Amino acid sequence: MRKSILESRIPLTKVELSRIKIRAIRRGSWFKVLSRVERASIDLTLKVVRKVRSLLLAKMLTTIVKKLLDAMESKVARLMREVGCGFTQNLSRIAQKWGNKSAVHWTADSKFAQYLTIMYINTPPMFKT
Fold first, then answer.
1. Which residues are within 8 A (CB) of 51 and not within 5 positions of it... i.e. 6 or more apart?
2. Taking Cα atoms as reference points, which of 123, 14, 46, 37 lies closest to residue 79?
3. Engineering a disulfide at 95: which of 53, 103, 113, 122 sits with its beta carbon 3.0 to 4.6 angstroms away?
4. pLDDT at res. 97
5. Predicted TM-score of the model (pTM)
6. At a CB cut-off of 8 Å and minimum separation 6, what does 13 contact?
């Protein structure tokens, strides 16, 4: 599966931080998720710094940005990570036991994991185990 935003590097430039801030404000996460101190830290960094070089500041901003990105992650993306990958592995294992040789590649197919996740979301609660 493709790397998620959280697994990739956290951008610590003025442009990237401002993009994340704008997205967080638009999605309503900026004030709900972050404390006043965390919001002020990002705002001050945006006003003063073009690119973060300080290791201490980078660590602090990374935790804040991860917190924001977690809050902004869509329901489908979160469930794909939590449920969909497990479903693809189980179905791939079963299909391989039945003799389907191409089932080995199912675990790497993100679209298949997305399909299974959406099917899981639309399954009535009485059928979920």
1. 12, 13, 14
2. 123
3. 103
4. 94
5. 0.63
6. 50, 51, 52
Within 13 A of 88's CA, how many CA atoms are on the CB side?
25
Contact indicator for 72, 24 with CB cutoff of 8 Å:
yes
**Three-state SS sequence of the chain:** CCCCCCCCCCCCEHHHHHHHHHHHHHHCHHHHHCCHHHHHHHHHHHHHCCECCCHHHHHHHHHHHHHHHHHHCCHHHHHHHHHHHHHHHHHHHHHHHCCCHHHHHHHHCHHHHHHHHHHHHHCCHHHCC
Distance between CA atoms of residues 113 and 129, nearest Å: 18
Name the residue among 11, 73, 71, 72 with its Cα closest to residue 46.
Answer: 11
The pLDDT score that the predictor gives to residue 126 is 86
Q: Which pLDDT tens digit goes with each residue over 27-59?
A: 999 999 999 999 999 999 999 999 998 899 999
